Structure prediction request, 323 residues.
Amino acid sequence: MHSIHPKTTMAAVAVLLWTTIALTEVAAAAAFVPPTTERVECQQRFALSDYGTSIRTGEDDYVDINRGLGGPIVRSRGPNNIMPISNVRAPSLAEIWDSTAPVVVQGGSLRTWHFSNPSVDAVQVLLKSEGRPIDCDVDLWNGPNNTPHKMRVYVEDGALRTFNAIVGTPRGPNSVAIRNIGQLEFPVDAVVRPDMQDGLAASIASVVSRSEVIQGGAIRTWPFNPIVQSVAVILKTDGRPLNARIELLQGPNNNKQVVELYTEDGLERPFFAIIETPEAAGSVIRIVNSAPLEFPLYASVDAYTVGDYYIDSYVDQDRWPML
Prediction:
């Protein structure tokens, strides 16, 4: 009877073990079927306004989005409950100043406007001076110790470039507070009034065609031809907080107007503004998303008036290229 050497037995066992492991790995690899990835194109619906706009996708192109529902500044009427706001003819800024008695806010003082009617879902906030700088805090108060909307506004020349914005006021009552943090020698004229059905918000939305995604910490700039006299700006999010800095530049680091903006819900309370650019030289709008990377925003910037005429009515938008 022949005896089996112990080393031979151990070698055979090792070979058998490695063979078993290899077969097991092959079977597991064959059993794994990676899921098929198909590009699914979908349209997100942001509850902001009735105008058609667009956002950038991962391929850096534009996808049209029809904003047809929701939001406190939405204007609904007509077929399919959507009003064609391209026909909106809101009063001009000069007409608003001529028809409304402004309230003088002296330097270092505070003035408030209260809106108890729940049907007032947005208010117009207009500031100007006699040519002196404007430096104000604009807050929306909704209940005790609740400030869902804040703005810090600086304008170099309050007569040449007035401040014009729309503040969403859903779920009234709400109060708008304006504090002039400038010196006593720098009073400010303020107009705060409800934004009606055919108001500035609908007029601003009617001239905007698309929006661009600005990631947290990113900067975007829009240069405009000198023929453009004012620019429409809309900022919003998908429901996350909105933190942004809007600057009007003329020349290197020459800020003519600066707005530091905070909104706790950029979908429910988007930011609408008209920035006047009356200079003979071209102007640049710069928007900085000062929020973290997890909080992108959607910016829509387009020409609002050319000369004394609305650009969507009298002038072909492709006729005046941007600088």
